Amino acid sequence: MLDWWSKYFASIETLMEILRAQEAALAEAEEREDQEIAAEGADIKPDDLPVKGSKGKEKSRDKSRNKEKKKSHHAGEGTEKHSSKPKVDELLVYNKELEAEYDNFEDWLHTFNLYRGKAGDDDEAALDDDRIVGRFKGSMCMYKLPLSEEITREVGFDPNMGMFQSIPHNDPINVLVRIFVVRATDLHPADVNGKADPYVVIKLGKSELKDKENYISKQLNPVFGKAFDMEATFPMESMLTVSVYDWDLVGTDDLIGETKIDLENRFYSKHRATCGIANSYSVHGYNVWRDPMKPSQILAKLCKEGKLDGPHYGPGGRVKVANRVFMGATEIEDENGLKKQTDEHLALTVLKHWEEIPRVGCKLIPEHVETRPLLNPDHPGIEQGRIEMWVDMFPMDMPAPGPAIDISPRKPKKYELRVIIWNTDEVILEDDDYFTGEKSSDIFVRGWLKGQQEDKQDTDVHYHSLTGEGNFNWRFVFPFDYLMAEEKIVISKKESMFSWDETEYKIPARLTLQVWDADHFSADDFLGAIELDLNRFPRGAKTAKQCSINMVQNQAELPCISIFKQKRVKGWWPFVARDENDEMELTGKVEAELHLMSAEEAEKSPVGLGRNEPDPLEKPNRPDTTFLWFLSPLKAIRYLVCNRYKWLIIKIIVALLLLMMLGLFLYSMPGYLVKKLLGA
After folding, report:
1. Which long-range contacts (CB under 8 A, 24 or more apart) does 13-16 make?
2. Residue boundaries of the structural domains of the chain
3. Do domains 91-108+172-275+369-409 and 413-629 have the same CATH topology?
């Protein structure tokens, strides 16, 4: 189900793609510059002087380069089309303060610091910041009189205002300020354990809101997901302070960092920083329009204030403002899926291109999240972290806005991963048999989810495997909490017995399977392992012969699957380990089956661990050699006699029989000869 966080994470992904593209373009530009410098250096050499026919060669090279570029461009387009994702409306995530993007919102107002005078020589060494006693807000402009006819001929020109046309009134105005705090990143540690217990404090004028009871334990990257409503009167209460404090059980809480926002500059700015313009207009769902004024009302107000002709809505999805014509959709879908005619999409199209309007046009603030640095007065100039947030402002004399959109952190969904270990094959043989001298291994498989090592599970042992083959039919069951959008497993646990609260960890969803050789009088021997990223791992081979180490080494080139989409998958995967030369080697293969179920589905069809009830697995059909020597001495003797020394014993018995026959022959031969000689 889509929500505000779906839009946020889609926007973050877009921001990361833009940053990666910028880095790639910068690296390419640097490489091109290095090549040009090298080429210039090469041109100086006398051997590289142009010769007859070189121009044609250069042209042919340029043509071939252009062809290659076109091919790569088309290939890129193909991959983009192939990797198309479901359409999710996005907002704009600024990796900086909003003021840095819009010139501190000083299009109307400029801020000047007021300094205390210097009374004597002692004040000479005082810092300028220590002498600030207030601020003056205003605007100064020097212009020649009389004004040019181009200005005086404009519609609605007020001769008393001169160059200051359309300046808003500065009468006190009551405003509802809605502050959304999304999350903080890279906070400075405030506790001795290198962590912090952050919570948010909002100050506006004389009002203060503390969210102390909702502090987040032991986090330097907390997700707050909070909305705060406050009332203020401009210009008296216009400085908003958003602080992040560290909660302490004993003593006073420590300030980690804070950021200050001048709301008055934003409120009166022509960029309309009161409420961001959404990318699309919707009356329901996760992308519902949150401004109390509809796009058509905002457009009409801007046209009136700018003394523009319009807007004029015409047939065929057209709207005219001043001398510009815009086109857009004219239908909107309600909650029941019914389509209705509307002009809101047309008006929104104009608002998104408002900077193209002559004379009064400027870029309007889009729906956004801004990233602001957190500073601490005790550590001036040193960033203590960053906070992602945005602010909406609504005049109290206008229609009241709806309830604040829900940006509370997503709660993880409960899942259960069932892993059945069927067989192993080609596991390396680690032990030498005491009696026979043969190579063998006592194989067992161990598995766990990353971050849950204390809940690791083992199969039973397949003793005395002579070929590396192991038969198990053994089931692991791993319950876990998962955030689908972030692709992370959520684990809450206390760091120690002295911890006051549980700490929440977000860990990539990865399954680790290991193969071991069991030893009873020493530590078990590790043979190999494989780690599967449950969101993208190679599809298992159909047979053990098709399973190879390439499934690990060339994983990026192989088709990958997600257990959260596939739900159930079975196949062979390789076990690998590092050899003495730190190179990857194949140490075995495992046939496993992964089955993902939601907690509700798992409750309806429960299973037991190992081969236990309910839904037990059959016992594996293991060879007769699979037993423990010292626990079954008679069986061991029978195995040694029947399997190892069978032919030797037969030969000895045959030899003894022959010797007995020879002895009897030699014993009876003299008497028989005497009888024959005497004629008896």
Report:
1. 14/90, 14/93, 15/93, 15/95
2. 4-89, 91-108+172-275+369-409, 109-118+132-167, 295-364, 413-629, 645-680
3. yes
CA separation for the pair 288, 337 (Å, rounded)? 15
User: How many residues can be counted in the chain?
Assistant: 680
Is residue 464 left, alpha or beta, with left meaning phi > 0 and alpha meaning psi from -120 to 50? left
Neighbours of 302 (CB within 10 A): 24
DSSP-assigned beta bridge partners for residue 185? 386
Q: Name residue 325's beta-bridge partners.
A: 320
User: What are the backbone angles phi and psi of residue 8, rounded to the nearest 5°?
Assistant: -65, -50
Distance, in Å, from the CA atom of 528 to the CA atom of 456, rounded to the nearest integer, reads 16
Beta strands 368-376 and 92-93, pairing class: parallel
Residue 149 is inside which H or E element, if any?
helix 149-152
Q: What is the pLDDT of residues 185-240, one digit of tens each?
A: 999 999 888 899 999 999 998 999 999 999 999 999 999 999 999 999 988 899 99
**Residue linked to tokens 């042992």:** 461
Nearest CA to 176 among 242, 124, 109, 234?
A: 234
Q: Are 232 and 205 in contact (CB under 8 A)?
A: yes
pLDDT digits (tens, 9 = 90+) for 613-659: 999 999 998 876 554 554 555 555 555 555 566 677 788 889 999 99
The phi, psi pair for 162, rounded to 5°, reads 60, -125
Give 319's contacts (C-beta < 8 A, 6+ positions apart). 310, 311, 312, 313, 325, 326, 327, 328, 343, 346, 347, 349, 350
pTM: 0.74
Homologous superfamily in CATH for domain 413-629: C2 domain (2.60.40.150)
Domain 91-108+172-275+369-409, classified CATH 2.60.40.150, yes or no: yes
Question: How far apart are alpha carbons 230 and 201 in whole angstroms?
Answer: 12
Spatial contact of 355 and 107, defined as CB atoms under 8 Å apart:
no
* Contacts of residue 237, Cβ cutoff 8 Å, sequence gap at least 6: 204, 205, 206, 207
DSSP 658: H
Asked if 267 and 273 count as a contact pair (C-beta separation under 8 A), the reply is: yes
